[in-house]
Amino acid sequence: MTASQDEAALWWATAVSHIEPGSIELRDRPVQELIGTTGLVDVIWLLLRGDLPTPRQSALLEAALVAGVDHGPQAPSIAAARMAATCGVGLNNAVATGVNLLGDSHGGAGQQCVEMLDDIRARHDAGAHWPDAAREVTADWQSRSRYLPGFGHRFHPVDPRRDPLLDLVHEAVADGVVKGEFLQAALAVEELLRLRRAGARPVPMNIDGATAVIYAELGFPAPLARGLFVLSRSVGVLAHAWEETGQGRRNKGPIPRSIMPARLPASEDI
Question: How confident is the model over 81-114, as pLDDT tens digits?
Fold first, then answer.
């Protein structure tokens, strides 16, 4: 190998994979040893973390990924993917269109929730009781935004994904799989909101909060909470884009043509 080839090899050196003629290694494990023996969730963990999860860790991660796969065409990422699929751009472009909409407002709450739970745990570690730590941190968050990431849902009074996910976390804590600190932090926020909103519509934990608890308990840093959500939701994006390609529409817009107004209102009319 020449000096320039050595320099290029070092430029692209990575611990994630090692490829040579006739050899593919993922985190130093030959791919042929993983094929047929290791599930996709375990391989996701392996590539991100460098080792394989225990069966219980894998089950928790899989539950979180399953819970986030889809939320119907009212979700902007799904709607955009379906519209893109009718524009002649190809399935991969339709999926990319949907995934590219997963930003701070739509898709980022899991990452933000992990960051908030990290702050609460840090204050607890510094000596604050869970309710006090939750009160201090949520006050700081709400000084910057009216929303607390991971709590409340515009569509569901109670997110149906909350309880089964948190039940799994409770079981994992009882069995020593995870410590439960992030679970305690999230429950403290939920209780604080319940007390604040006595008599009003409750603001329980949603899918972003419940999966944030799981990702944080499993040791994933906050940015990967969003990355893992993107992996999860891309399954639903793909399914919707594929279904749309079979429905024969061209240039699908946000509303049916039959109810489009003859003239769209000007901005001063709105």
Answer: 999 999 999 999 999 999 999 999 888 999 999 9
On whether both 117 and 43 belong to a single domain, the answer is: no
Structural domain contains residue 79: no
Its domain, for residue 118, covers 109-225
Pair (218, 152) in one structural domain:
yes
For residue 165, which of 203, 202, 213, 121 has the smallest C-alpha distance? Answer: 213
Contacts 24+ apart (CB under 8 A), 5-8: none
Residue 105: how many CA atoms within 13 Å on its side-chain side?
7
Domain for residue 82, yes or no? no
DSSP annotation of 246 reads T
User: What tokens were used for 261?
Assistant: 């107004």
21: its two tokens: 């003629």
Q: How far apart are CA 45 and CA 64, in angstroms?
A: 13
Domain tally for the chain?
Answer: 2
Other CB atoms closer than 10 Å to residue 26's CB: what's the count? 17
